[in-house]
Amino acid sequence: MIETTFPRGFALRIRPWLGIAAAASFAVASVMALAWAPTDAVQGDVYRIMYVHVPAAWLAYLAFVVVFLASVGWLWSKRPWFDAAAVASAEIGVLFTGLALVAGSIWAKPTWGVWWTWEPRLVTTAVMFVMYVGYLLLRSLSTDFDRRATRAAILGVILVLDVPIVHLSVLWANSLHQLPTVLRAGGSPALDSAMLLTLMVSVAAFTLVYLYFMSARVAIELSRRMTIWGAAGAQPPRLP
Q1: What is the mean pLDDT of residues 209-225?
Q2: How far apart are CA 3 and CA 26, in angstroms?
Q3: From residue 191, how far is each of 25, 38, 42, 188 by CA, in Å?
Q4: Which positions ≥6 away from 230 have C-beta within 8 Å?
Q5: What is the rounded distance in angstroms from the CA atom of residue 80 to the CA atom of residue 23?
Q6: What is the mean pLDDT of residues 124-149?
Q7: Which H, E and C letters describe 73-90, residue by residue?
Q8: Are 221 and 11 in contact (CB under 8 A)?
Q9: For the purposes of burial, counting CB atoms within 10 Å of the CB of 145, is it exposed (0-12), middle (13-18) or buried (19 or more)?
Q10: Residue 67: pLDDT over 50
Q11: With 60 as the cut, is the pLDDT of residue 192 above it?
Q12: Which pLDDT band holds residue 2 (cuts at 50, 70, 90)?
């Protein structure tokens, strides 16, 4: 049975625990971000949106790197699970990229005085968002599973190049966006220890949410495809 095969069977067993861990960690992160972390001496309390903006940006990076890895896996093995993981991660990545853009705009208004400015980090992030929306649209242009998966996989391998461009854009060009404050070359994090701990807990909470979404979305995608293959009277391919 498909339900007992790995990794789908494993995902079904751990999904409830992932949901509990994600909800609990998210609650802890919210309390820490809103009440425990100190107020910033320069920005005041508005900086607290960092605890949404930064984890969302991190999840955008992670999601699109997973799209790349799953795309390579599909091209290498042609196993449907890899294609299902790629589309699932792309959808979640678009969600978190959009959240990062919205949270960044809310943060920018009181600090920069504008909702949007054409500075390198914002532009490259918006381009990344549009590219992965295009990736999802490409998948809807064909009903041939293998052809669609292969085209999407090739695009998924190429598009990941924008991830380091987004991250390094603040170093390569003059930018209003602040320089890296946690992963700094040749230096320790430029954050108060309580702020840093709160940020790390927030990142962990968002990552658990991503893993929960992935386990659910991949299972839905595989079930949908098994239904389609069954309705067509075709022999479904072997899943890992």
Answers
A1: 88
A2: 29
A3: 21, 11, 13, 9
A4: 236
A5: 30
A6: 89
A7: HHHHHCCHHHHHHHHHHH
A8: no
A9: middle
A10: yes
A11: yes
A12: very low
Q: Select the more confidently predicted residue: 2 or 152.
A: 152
- Spatial distance between the Cα atoms of 73 and 138, rounded to a whole number of angstroms: 19
The tokens describing 226, both together, are: 């098994």
pLDDT of residue 101: 94
Amino acid identity, position 168: L
- At residue 14, the 3 state secondary structure works out as helix
Q: What is the CATH number of domain 15-38+46-176+193-231?
A: 1.20.120
Bond prior to 237 in cis (omega within 30° of 0): no
Sole residue written with tokens 């299972």: 219
What is the number of other CB atoms lying within 10 angstroms of the CB of residue 131?
Answer: 17
Q: Which residue type does 185 have? A: A
* Best CA proximity match to 65, nearest among 178, 149, 162: 162
DSSP state letters, 92-107: HHHHHHHHHHHHHHHH
